[in-house]
Each structure stands twice: as C-alpha cells, then as structure tokens.
Amino acid sequence: MLDDFLVRAALAGLGTALAAGLLGCFVVWRRMAYFGDAMAHAAVLGVALSLGFELSIFAGVIVTALAMAFLFLSLTGQGQSADAALGVIAHGGLALGLVAVALIPGQRISLDSYLFGSVLTVTRLDLAIIWGGAVIVLFVIWRHWQSLLTATLSPDLAYAAGINPRREELVLTMMLALVVAVAIKVVGALLITALLIIPAATARTFARTPEGMAMIAIGIGGLSALGGLQMALLLDTPVGPSIVCVAVACFMIATISGKLRA
Asked: Whose CA is closest to 181, among 44, 3, 4, 35?
C-alpha cells in the first residue's frame, strides 16, 4: 500500500497536521507566530548546509532551527527586543541560506521544493521521519501539558506552582524546531507557519477548553492536508499552497459561522 505515492502523501500530510495542529495552539496562545515564521525562514540555511555537506535534510534543518532558537533566547536574554531579534534571525537565515546555495559548486540547485513543499515525492524514510517527529511532539506535549498551560497563562503562577517558565519555553522551542524540520517536506519553509497558526486559530472559534481546541486544531489540520491534496490533484496546483488554501477556507467558514451564532 505504501508503494502508492498518493497514500504516502496523505499519510505525510496527516502526520504533519498532528504535530503542527497540537503545537500551533501554544503558538497562538503565546502569540509566537513571528517566532515560528523566523525559524521556518532560518530552515532554508539548514537546507543549504545539508546540500553543501551532503547531509540529511532533516538533520540539517533541525540543527539549524535549534541553533537559531537558542540564538534568539540568548539575544533576548541580553536585553535585545524580541521583534528585532526575530527579524535578524528570519531574514538573516533566509539570506544566508540563499547565498550558501548559490556558492555550492556544480549545477544550480532549485530550492522550490524546500520553500513550497514536495509532498508527492515523500519516500518511506521521509514518512518514518515525519511520523516519528509527530509522535515525539505528541509525547512531549502530553508530558508537559499542564506545566506548559500554566506557564502560558501566567509565568508568576507557574513560579508559585514550582514550574520554571524558561524551561517550558525551551521545551516549546525544541518542539517547534522539530515540527519545522518534519513539515518542510510537506508544505515547505515559507508555508510552515500557516499550518501552525491557521488550524489553531480556526479551532479557537469552536473550542471551550484548551484540550478541545487542541483536538479540533489537529482535525482541521488533517482536513486541510487531505483537502489540499485533493484540490491539487483536481486543479493541478502545487500541493503545499493548496493545503494552506483549504486551511484558510476553513478559517473563513469558522469566522463567518461564529459571527452568525453571535
């Protein structure tokens, strides 16, 4: 069954939606959209380094994303404003990645598949990496769910409960790096943030509890992945952008229905 490239593409989309939908809730609650965007842009540098040194794209992207995340934490810890630090990391990482690709000897390399995704070319190994990453994200968030929620709601309350908000931020940062690394094959570096934010923002319209919002976000992410794949097959459009278009359509429907119920 896994010899069918469409089945592999669908499974890859669902695995990415599982991780991105769950983690996206914390991105929305903490207003970290620009942080996710910065890591996704910096992932292009990881792709360039992987191609230049003939390493695994997954390994290169996750190492680079983690390095950029720690750089951000270091800069903000030294008094640099968060938006300025993120701007430097996002645009600096993207520019360095593009320059690095241009300097790789030999034939010119196209970054289109890494910028916008190439889910139809997912291999069995890619599928194992994507679902392995999704399971790790699911397990870590499950283990840290209450402490992450408390630290998100109030750092002071977290300290009073014996929770270190800085440690929980580090956990969240590492999981974001992992999601960026596994999602780059599905939707590409430029669209990863959309898959993190839009399903979670849509789920907030219907959810009554944080747990409910997480489950709905995962469902909307899965629906967007499968719907985008179907749309791409019917209209002959790029799969990554098609997935995001379906997610945006879900958001618009949720927004309109929310206003009608009000």
From this structure: 44
Please write the tens of the pLDDT for every residue from 160-183. 888 888 888 888 888 888 888 888
Angle (nearest 5°) at CA 199 between 193 and 205:
130
Question: Could you tell me the CATH number of the domain that includes residue 30?
Answer: 1.10.3470.10
pLDDT at 198: 93
Cα separation, 232 vs 249, whole angstroms:
15
Domain residue limits at 39? 5-190
**Structural domains in the chain (count):** 1
Q: Over the range 162-171, which residues count as b (16 or more CB within 10 Å of their CB) and which as e?
A: ebebeebbeb
Are residues 187 and 243 in contact, defined by beta-carbon separation less than 8 angstroms? yes
DSSP 70-117: HHHHHHHHTT--HHHHHHHHHHHHHHHHHHHHHHSSSS----HHHHH-
Say if 260 falls within a structural domain: no
The residue written with tokens 């890494």 in the block is 114
Alpha carbon distance 251, 248 (integer Å)? 5
State residue 106's pLDDT score.
66
Low-confidence stretches of the chain (pLDDT beneath 70)? 1-3, 106-110, 262
In a domain, 225, yes or no: no
